[in-house]
Write a structure and sequence with these properties.
Layout: E1 4-16, E2 21-23, E3 28-29, E4 33-50, E5 57-60, E6 63-64, H1 67-87, E7 97-104, H2 114-129, H3 136-146, E8 158-161, E9 174-178, E10 185-191, H4 201-211, H5 215-234, H6 238-257, H7 268-282, E11 287-291, E12 297-302, H8 306-314, E13 321-325, E14 332-333
Parallel strand pairs: 5-7
Antiparallel strand pairs: 1-4, 1-14, 2-3, 4-7, 4-8, 5-6, 8-9, 10-12, 10-13, 11-12
Bound molecules: ligand 2P0.
Amino acid sequence: MIRQATAEACANIALVKYWGKRDAVLNLPATGSLSLTLSGLVTRTTVTWAEDPGDDAILLDGKPAAGAERQRIVTFLDLVREGMQASGASDRPGAPRASVESVNGFPRAAGLASSASGFAALALASTRAAGLELADEQLSVLARRGSGSACRSIFGGFVEWLPGSAADGQDSHAVPLLAPEAWDVRMLVAVLAERPKPKGSTDAMNHTVATSPYFEAWRACVPGDLDIARQAIASRDLARLGELAESNALRMHATMLAARPPVLYWLPETVAAMRRVRELRDAGMACWFTIDAGPNVKVLCDAAFEAAVITGLSDLPGVLRVISSRPGPGARLVPALVSS
Ligand code: 2P0
């Protein structure tokens, strides 16, 4: 039996956002969502299973995980342990113990979707190390339990998360829409703040569902936005996709602004970057912004305008750096590091 495996997964940025759950325990979304998996934002995770008793050892970027962050990972590992017991890979209750080492190539918890790449890499590494070979859709179901958006990072390129309708969540997983090499676009991340965000997205979205009078309107508009996004991707219509993504992101933020108390992730620099994207577009550059649960601004753009848009964003005061990504691959094992 393989005891150790290493996997890599890329972050993804949603173009039609996931904001709101219908089941908070199983991470079942209120709507579908659609994203682009990004080459530049990678998490690499090694999992080793050992039969000796004791607590899981979890290192995130070289530091022991603590508190709620640690508990979220242990709860996820418990799901894998259940799978191991069911498959006969382990027959000792409570065992085996996991060692997890995870390294991010980008700032964690700053609205750059590190939980997506993190739980996608953890899902693949932890199951393979346990000798479990899940099909991609089942891996997506498992990754979703760690963090909803992680189910999308199992696949590369443009990806849709089907909300599903089953109570157990087995039909709520991602599916690939367009392979990464099939459309050469860019996603630029203007990093405005590398500090952890004030309110985590899980709490913020649950609070929005509970208190925002606009949540029902948000839920009602997402299926139509998904239709437009799918059509735009199928016809490689970047302007249509970009306009839709900008509008969808602003509708998501409008929904959370209407929560009580409101959820406001923007900094003054966030608004300045949004305005700059509009100026660049007015000057003829094909670029559109989107914003997640943090202050950073992500810009979808035509590959031909990449350098000019990076310059236009870097010129703004408050932009620490700009990370450029292409469509990236799905979660994958790092073969040289798999041992038995
Ligand atoms: C998204 N976000 O679609 C949206 C847009 C943030 C804004 O998915 O509670 O960390 O773990 O399921 O996946 C962030 O939410 O939340 C997210 P949980 P997750 O990318």
